């Protein structure tokens, strides 16, 4: 009787993705800056008075960092991604529509990551002269609607950009209140990124992402990325720093 009762749960259990499979699909959540992490490791070594810290950090970055980073990514991914997700993504690797949309999205992502100074200037303009800084949408309403369905609710992206810019601006004496953040800055950032998207992503790309976003695999990746960026236990930055501390024998 107990076995019969457990059968439904046994049937839906899924094997989690293997390390080899994860390496093949090479999935992560954003790009961890090597330069930024190098500075973090130098700071740690300095705080704990590690001898020959420059040489040891250089050696770690060239010989061990990438291995540790992959291990940390996989440790988190193995909690959320399944073998079925792997099979699904392998199929998508040969789908022309998926390939095109992914390539276009990668270009957009790079533009966003390279544009911190643009968001910093916008931050200053919002504070110094609020409403005149509103960024207008430069794409058709049909495109805006589809873009917002995919990206408009990505609070992690907007929050991450804001926090990065905010840290820079605090040193200059700039501070943004809640009304400026919610009422002006974030709508401006959304419009700006939507306009950039219009240069890289076609409506066909957006249609593909809309269709994909509710698939089980995308749901799993959403959980994985959220855990990697927001979770106390599965934060990728914390995990990599722990690996580095072990390498430098810091306790």
Descriptive report:
The chain starts with a helix and ends with a helix. Helix 3 runs antiparallel to helix 4, helix 7 (96-113) packs across helix 11 (178-200) and helix 8 (116-128) packs across helix 11 (178-200). The protein is built from 14 helices and no strands. It has 251 residues and is mainly α. The chain folds into two domains: 31-79 and 234-251; 96-231, no CATH class. The protein has helices spanning 2-12, 19-25, 34-47, 53-63, 65-77, 83-92, 96-113, 116-128, 141-152, 155-170, 178-200, 203-212, 216-230, 236-247.
Give the helices and strands, then pairings.
Blueprint: H1 2-12, H2 19-25, H3 34-47, H4 53-63, H5 65-77, H6 83-92, H7 96-113, H8 116-128, H9 141-152, H10 155-170, H11 178-200, H12 203-212, H13 216-230, H14 236-247
Helix pairs in contact: 3-4, 5-14, 7-11, 7-12, 8-10, 8-11, 9-11, 9-12
Distance between the termini: 51 Å
Order of helices and strands: HHHHHHHHHHHHHH
Shape: flat
- The overall strand count is 0
What brief labels describe this structure?
251 residues; mainly alpha; 74% helix; 0% strand
Task: Describe the structure in brief.
With about 250 residues, the chain is mainly α. The protein contains 14 helices and no strands. It folds into 2 domains: about 70 residues; about 140 residues, no CATH class.
């Amino acid at each position: 009787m107990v076995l019969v009762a457990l059968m439904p749960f046994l049937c839906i259990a899924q094997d989690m993705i293997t390390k080899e499979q994860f390496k093949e699909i090479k999935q992560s959540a954003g790009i961890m800056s090597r330069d930024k992490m190098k500075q973090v490791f130098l700071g740690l070594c300095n705080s704990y008075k590690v001898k020959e810290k420059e040489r040891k950090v250089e050696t770690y970055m060239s010989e061990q960092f990438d291995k540790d980073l992959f291990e940390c990514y996989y440790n988190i991914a193995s909690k959320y991604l399944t073998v079925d997700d792997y099979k699904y993504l392998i199929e998508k690797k040969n789908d022309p529509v998926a390939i095109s949309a992914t390539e276009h999205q990668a270009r957009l992502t790079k533009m966003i990551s390279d544009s911190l100074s643009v968001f910093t200037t916008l931050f200053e303009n919002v504070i110094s002269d609020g409403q005149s800084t509103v960024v207008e949408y430069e794409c058709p309403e049909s495109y805006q609607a589809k873009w917002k369905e995919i990206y408009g609710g990505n609070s992690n992206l907007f929050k991450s950009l804001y926090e990065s810019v905010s840290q820079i601006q605090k040193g200059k004496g700039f501070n943004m209140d809640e009304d400026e953040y919610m009422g002006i800055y974030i709508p401006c950032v959304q419009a700006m990124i939507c306009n950039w998207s219009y240069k890289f992503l076609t409506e066909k790309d957006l249609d593909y992402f809309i269709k994909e976003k509710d698939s089980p695999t995308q749901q799993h990746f959403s959980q994985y990325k959220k855990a990697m960026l927001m979770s106390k236990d599965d934060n990728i930055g914390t995990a990599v720093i722990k690996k580095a501390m072990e390498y430098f024998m810091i306790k």
